[in-house]
Known about the structure:
Helices cover 32% and strands 29% of the residues. It is α/β, with parallel strands linked by helices. It has two domains: 6-120 and 270-289, NAD(P)-binding Rossmann-like Domain (Rossmann fold); 124-267 and 300-313, Dihydrodipicolinate Reductase, domain 2. The strands form two sheets. It has a nine-stranded mixed β-sheet with strand order 14-13-12-11-7-10-9-8-15. A six-stranded parallel β-sheet has the order 3-2-1-4-5-6, with helices on both faces. The site of nicotinamide-adenine-dinucleotide (NAD) has 24 residues, from loops.
Amino acid sequence: MTAGRVRAAVIGVGHLGRHHARILSDLKGVELVGVVDVNPQRAQEIAEIHRTKALAPGDLAGAVDAVVVATPTASHAEVARPLLERGIAVLVEKPIARSIVEADAIIAAGRAGGTIVAVGHTERFNPAVEAARGRLIAPRFIEVHRLGTFPDRSLDIDVVFDLMIHDLDVILSVVDSPVAGIDAVGVAVLTPKFDIANVRLRFESGCIANLTASRISRDRTRKIRFFQPDSYVSVDYAAQELEVWRLVRPASGLPAIEGGIVPVTNEEPLKRELQDFVDAVRDRRPPKVTGEDGRRALALAAQITERMTTVGER
Ligand code: NAD
């Protein structure tokens, strides 16, 4: 680090990586040293926009303290490992890797290099999720809808690993109980992978989570709702809106339901995620979403797809 500034780079400046580059180029206490991409024109284009350099992977050793890996999931492990082994902190996009073996290799490389691994589960940094967290005491039932229009990317993985994994990570960070049962159904419509999935998770605590994810919807919806014995907490991830309704029992007469929208200060979740990452690098502390968290979400996604019954041809 030079004068307390974290020297950072982004590898893979496609759809998401360009936003990492944009935010890092503006973040206080960060120097965006450069961007790397297998497509040299793309690297040059993004470097020019953000007044930085297009670099080769070999240029990074000794030049950076922290790297964001936003390449396709299949290459996360091969790109992240050598950096971590050299002691360079890495924020790897979600899902952490395409297999548990690769996720373990990333985590082990971080340990060997004495540095941190953060995983890009962006919804944890959504201001509405952060505002809801203190109100989630004992969810008994969780309902999730994450419906998106057909993307031209990430079609090499199931909708469970691409979209549902965001909600699996949020739920695992809220429900402190092992998963006791999984019922899952998937439908492959436009691709050979599952494009729609519905999953019911039963936790040992008795909490039930029902998740639906689709990447072939006409409209976009991203909502998670928590039902508790005396309150209902609803988060609209996309609008960054939080609603809380409580059961109020007066000394006499019938109980009433009171509440409504809770004010939330909106901010780009990706910016909060990157701020946490660079603060963790500077303060030498674990990031908010660790490699182990990423592994846990990946392991649950893998269990779900293993148990998934199929509708239609695959
Ligand atoms: P993309 O295909 O748009 O971009 C990937 C970029 O990486 C491309 O520019 C490509 O040329 C480059 N690349 C490929 N292999 C490389 C390598 N070995 N070294 C350097 N560059 C390489 O993909 P995307 O949609 O930006 O997704 C990237 C990652 O981000 C995926 O893991 C995806 O799951 C994740 N993602 C996360 C979120 C989120 O909400 N956190 C959203 C979208 C994507």
